[in-house]
Design brief:
By secondary structure, the chain is mostly helical. It has 14 helices and no strands. The protein has helices spanning about 1-30, 35-40, 45-75, 80-90, 90-95, 95-110, 115-120, 130-140, 140-155, 160-165, 170-200, 200-210, 220-225, 230-260.
């Protein structure tokens, strides 16, 4: 039984992860390292890369703030709508990213009240960086909270209650007691958020308008190269995801070990 399960697991990894990954690397160097490097360093690739990195960098602080606030509220307070808020955390994980992008267009496009107001001020939300930022937040906001909530529930509130009884302020309790206990869960959630943000395609492709050099993120740029039959260039651009995956997996493993040791 054990050998069968190991064989199934190993075969799954080989077929669906290892083989496609090596196919990407082989395809990227199929016409020589020079062609591959041209795809990596192409101006469109670098612009798309910097745009994706800017979205990741901007979304992480917001995700950290929301994740901490949501987890703290859900684990420490009882209020009307608590179940609704907790259920809403799963919404981005269950809804199609393409549908999410359409929802953002309907809510913040120039024909909507909010989008029309900002459009009259000369500030477009959709088909610009803010629209991509909203799409990135939508698909990533559950990860931090869903990592922190189990830690808070597991560790309980006895230390916080004791500190409050001794006269410590709520902010002091949070920064001196609560945050150190959940910091590795916070880091783990941010790693997952960063990986999800960097690879987001569905919602971003809908709200971007595909304006080259302005709203095309790296996943969209890879798809554009591929659809224009610039396959080797698309493989070269996709190499950044391979590098990012290695970095993410390494950091994720370190943080996971620290988190499990708490």
């Amino acid at each position: 039984m054990r050998k069968v399960l190991i064989s199934i697991s190993t075969g799954y990894i080989l077929i669906f992860i290892v083989l496609p990954l090596f196919s990407l690397l082989i395809g990227g160097f199929s016409k020589g390292a020079g062609t591959w490097l041209e795809g990596v360093l192409h101006p469109d690739t670098l612009r798309a890369l910097f745009l994706s990195l800017s979205l990741v960098a901007a979304s992480l602080p917001v995700n950290a703030l929301f994740g901490l606030a949501a987890a703290w509220v859900l684990c420490n307070f009882t209020f009307p709508g608590k179940r609704v808020l907790r259920a809403a955390l799963d919404l981005p994980l269950t809804i199609s990213p393409v549908v999410a992008g359409l929802m953002l267009i309907l809510a913040y496009g120039k024909n909507s009240p909010i989008g029309g107001f900002f459009n009259d001020l000369g500030f477009a939300i959709i088909f610009s960086w803010p629209g991509l930022f909203l799409a990135t937040l939508f698909v990533t906001f559950p990860y931090v909270a869903k990592e922190i909530i189990p830690l808070l529930e597991k560790q309980g509130h006895s230390e916080e209650e004791a500190a409050l009884l001794l006269g410590a302020g709520s902010w002091t309790v949070f920064f001196r007691i609560s945050l150190p206990k959940i910091k590795w869960g916070l880091f783990y959630g941010l790693i997952l958020s960063a990986a999800r943000a960097a690879g987001e395609y569905g919602a971003a492709s809908v709200v971007s308008g595909l304006l080259r050099g302005k709203t095309v993120t790296l996943p969209i740029q890879v798809q554009i190269y591929f659809s224009e039959y610039q396959t080797v260039r698309s493989y070269g651009a996709a190499t950044f995801f391979f590098i990012f995956a290695l970095i993410s997996l390494t950091v994720k493993r370190i943080v996971q070990n620290r988190k499990e040791s708490q």
